[in-house]
Amino acid sequence: MTPFTDLDLRPELLLVLEQIGFTHMTPIQAEALPMVLSGADVTGQAETGSGKTAAFGLGLLNRIDVERAWPQAMVLCPTRELAEQVTMELRRLGSRLENLRVLTLCGGRSFQYQRDSLRRGCTVVVGTPGRVDEHLRRGSLGLQDLRILVLDEADRMLDMGFIDVVTDIVGACPRDRQTLLFSATFPDAIDELAAEIQDEPIRVSVSEDTQPETITQSLVICEMGQRKQRIADVLAHYAPTSALVFCETRKDCAEVARSLSQRGAAALALHGDLDQRQRDDVLVQFANGSATVLVATNVAARGLDIPELPLVLVAELSSDPESHVHRVGRTGRAGESGRAVSIVSRPNEHKRLETLEAFLGEPLTREPELPVSGRLDSLTPHNRTLLLLAGRAAKLRKGDVLGALIKDGGIPKDAIGRIDTMDKTTAVAITREWADKALDYVMRGRIKKQRIRAVLL
Length: 457
What we know:
Layout: H1 11-19, H2 27-37, E1 42-45, H3 52-63, E2 73-76, H4 80-93, E3 102-105, H5 111-120, E4 124-127, H6 129-137, E5 148-151, H7 154-159, H8 163-171, E6 178-183, H9 188-197, E7 202-205, E8 215-223, H10 227-238, E9 243-246, H11 250-262, E10 267-270, H12 276-287, E11 293-296, E12 311-314, H13 321-328, E13 338-346, H14 350-360, E14 365-366, E15 383-388, H15 398-408, E16 416-421, E17 426-431, H16 432-444, E18 454-456
Helix pairs in contact: 2-3, 3-4, 6-8
């Protein structure tokens, strides 16, 4: 394994890498980063969770001039969730770079707030094609000084019909830029796009096993009409600290989450019918341990940062084997072991199963008969989420919240978990026994001399 110290990186970046425990590069980083740092156009192929964000992120952070407060690098992402994740990772990797400003431009957020932020200046833009294109058309975003353009999960952007918008955005960028394109798969359309927007790109590819050794896959066979019961049976049997359940449709997603909640599990649904505020609330609760089960459509299959996920449960097999691999790949990351269980209804899903097993090159293990479960109270999470209705826009920092809760609110330090600060809200994980007291303090007291409204999610 190649250490990061072998690269010509800024001392500030090397210090951050050391502090967060990143000493050696992943395969995609070892292949791509030297080429990115050389200034070449790079086309990279790697799966979710392989470290590709740092592969392009360190490259662009190493090149930008933080003294110049205008967009010098831009990352295009297919979804709002991935854009938010990339923004957080770039801020983390660049936390030692003074004056670094990373701005997210996505739909579901205030356009006026984004326009005002652009006027105040930023160095890196991360956004979805639709919203970036809107800012370009309305004159609030200028790319005349852009040095690096990154297309992250380009195959997903093409699948979602963004090709024309992406082409328009590329046309607004300087011709002498560096262009990086990362994709999990490489259909012909990706090769055509790369040929159109890149200059003699260097292609790097990291082959991944279709079924990593760290992931144990198995099947549960059920009759029609038994799917919800079998989902509950699997969760009761394995009793995971957290689980991600994949459904094919938004309707199924909502129904499965409702069914599990009625049994006592803390289950939340994530699908396209939620607005941005609802999506944020769902994701932050799952990430900070306030919800045990996230029931999602494929919007969560790629791009979401869900660490330490012991169980993925596929409620219905996808007709696309690669989609199945992406779903399963959410568990067993960073060398941790994981388990993936798929529910297969007979006889209507057997053709999909045959296709999947042919793709994997081996049959999947059939689970023995599982006990029929009733209540799922064992999946009650340790935490609840205290949502403060103020965030970065109100100059609220994590340290302000933590200090106020401990010093003035009387909340033990070990009762406070993860704190996520967003533009207009701050989510605090609090152990259940202290959650009501924490809410009472916030509603009656002050944080940073401000009165702040709050709710328990």
